[in-house]
Structures are given as C-alpha cells and as structure tokens.
Amino acid sequence: MYADQHNPDKPDLDSPERIGHFVEAFYERLLKDETLAPIFLDVAAIDIHEHFPRIQAYWEKLLMGGQDYHRHTMNIHRALYHKRPLTRADFDLWLSYFTQTMDEKFAGPYAERAKRIAATIADNMHRALNGP
Ligand code: HEM
Q1: Which of this chain's residues are annotated to bind heme (predicted)?
Q2: Does 80 contact ligand 1 (Cβ within 6 A)?
Q3: In this predicted structure, what is the pLDDT of residue 53?
Q4: Which residues are annotated as a binding site for heme?
Q5: What ranges do the domains of the chain cover?
Q6: 25 CB less than 6 Å from ligand 1?
Q7: How many CA atoms lie within 13 Å of 25's alpha carbon, on the beta-carbon side?
Q8: Which residue's CA is minimally distant from atom 21 of ligand 1?
C-alpha cells in the first residue's frame, strides 16, 4: 500500500501548484470516460474555468488547511443526484480515476492521505444519497 511512498521520482501532493496539476490530470481522465463525462458536461454543464479552481481549493482545504473553499459540496451533489442518480458503480469509477491519477503522478504521505480521504468521502456521499 505504501510501496510508492518514498519513490524519489514522484513528488508528493504537498503544494497548491501540485494540487492544481493533479486536478487537471484527474479531470483529463474523468472527462474522457463515457459514463462520467456526460454528468459533468451535459447534466451539470460545468464551466471548467470555474470548476477547476474550486476543486483545487477544496483539496487545499482538506490537505493543507486552505481557507478558500466555503461551499456545500454535499448539497451540490444532492442537487446533481436529483437530475442523474449517482450509483455505487459511478463512485467506484470516480475513485478508480482518482487513485490511478494519484499513483501515476504523486507519491508520499499527502498523496496517501488524499486517496484515503477521497475513498471515505465517496463512501459517505454514496450512502448519504442512496441510503445504507
Ligand atoms: C460518482 C462520483 C461523482 C460524480 C459523478 C461527481 C460529479 C460532480 C459534478 C458534475 C460536479 C459539478 C456540480 C455543479 O457544478 O453543479 C461536482 C462538483 C464537485 N465535486 Fe463531485 N462528483 C462525484 C464525487 C465526488 C467526491 C467523492 C468528491 C469529494 C471527495 C467530490 C467533490 C466535488 C467538489 C469539491 C465539487 C465542487 C462543488 C462546488 O461547486 O463547490 N465529488 N461533482
């Protein structure tokens, strides 16, 4: 599980710039996926120029105590869910891209923590939306 943690070739996810790079690489995968891409592009019709800085600020808050994210993520996904239910399979897919992107580009304690937090939030979000 921690095999990559000390890989000197990969940086850790330990600065706002690196989180920014992670978000771009993660969304490159999400937005190529034929199941998930339409949720972002058609159902929510995100504006990437607004969305990316929010995702970056969200992870800065979770990983390094950043102060720039103040939105209600759960309510936003609940509103989304009413337009297009998010299933266990969707969450598994989302998390698999998150983990793949992380393992390909980053290694270290922050990267490991981000993966654990993402898995926990995905699980909680799925349960909050779909019931136990
Ligand atoms: C099935 C899995 C998921 C899908 C398909 C999904 C999809 C989306 C979409 C379409 C939006 C844009 C909503 C809008 O602007 O109306 C969004 C926003 C967001 N998502 Fe997710 N999401 C998923 C899981 C997660 C998880 C597990 C997290 C956290 C670990 C997360 C964090 C966020 C954040 C921070 C935003 C920005 C909300 C804002 O505008 O402030 N998402 N998501």
Answers
A1: 77
A2: yes
A3: 97
A4: 77
A5: 16-130
A6: no
A7: 17
A8: 77
